[in-house]
Amino acid sequence: MIRVLAICAGRCAPLVVAGRGASEAVASAIVKSPVSTLDAAAAIEVGPLGVAGDEQADLSVHGGLDKAVYLYPREHYAFWQTVRAQAGNGEALAPGAMGENLLIEGLLETEAWIGDRLTIGEVGLRIESPRAPCFKFNARMGFAWATKMMVQSGYTGFYCSVVRQGKLAAGDSVLVHPGDRVVSIEQAHRMKHRSRRS
Question: What CATH number does the domain located at 3-197 have?
């Protein structure tokens, strides 16, 4: 069964990132916190630009109509917990740690196809693209090679557009309505990064 484990949102705030020889603060909303969990399954409104109460700092890479809602598989959390511990940070990862809006289980990048539609509660989503991580992800994870590891692992999660507004809650099942299924999220990610290397 595919389901939502948590719904997360965050506001734009200063994020300290490592620069050349110093640190600087940049605006970011990558730090997200749960607003609906299995223990407190509040119904949250989702509009054309995403989850109520959520913000994006740089709409050129996150947010907008085609990247309104970011989904991330819980199955990858163990990987990130391990590599963070190896980098010296053993603090447990909470929902929202990847900057995701929906922490889900049961749907990986290899099984998510661009153009597939998802029904979650009242909400309809369309799978659009894999995430392309930026330098802010390194700061969020706490080590300098996190972005590189996301690219190499393919554990990107995926962006969706909103095709039907409404409310959803943690615990809601995710119904998949197949599209043409020409390119999966995993394939789109691999093709993008293979073309950059050639």
Answer: 2.40.33.20
Element housing 7 (H / E): strand 3-9
Q: How far apart are CA 137 and CA 160, in angstroms?
A: 19
Q: pTM value? A: 0.95
Q: Which two tokens stand for residue 65?
A: 């109509």
Query: CB-based contacts of 167: which residues, under 8 Å, 6+ apart?
Result: 43, 44, 45, 46, 121, 122, 123
The DSSP bridge partners found for residue 72 are 103
Dihedral sign for Cα atoms in the order 178, 182, 188, 190: positive
List the beta bridge partners of residue 9: 33
**Cα dihedral: 24, 27, 31, 36 (round 10):** 170
| Domain regions of the chain by residue span | 3-197
User: How buried is 176 (Cβ within 10 angstroms: 0-12 exposed, 13-18 middle, 19+ buried)?
Assistant: middle
Q: Under a CB-based contact definition with an 8 Å cutoff, are residues 160 and 125 in contact?
A: yes
Distance CA 135, CA 146 (A): 9
Q: What is the pLDDT of residue 147?
A: 96
Q: Using the 8-state DSSP alphabet, how is residue 70 labeled?
A: E
Residue with tokens 């605006």: 27
Summarize pLDDT for 149-181 with one digit per residue, the tens.
999 999 999 999 999 999 999 999 999 999 999
pLDDT surpasses 50 at 116: yes
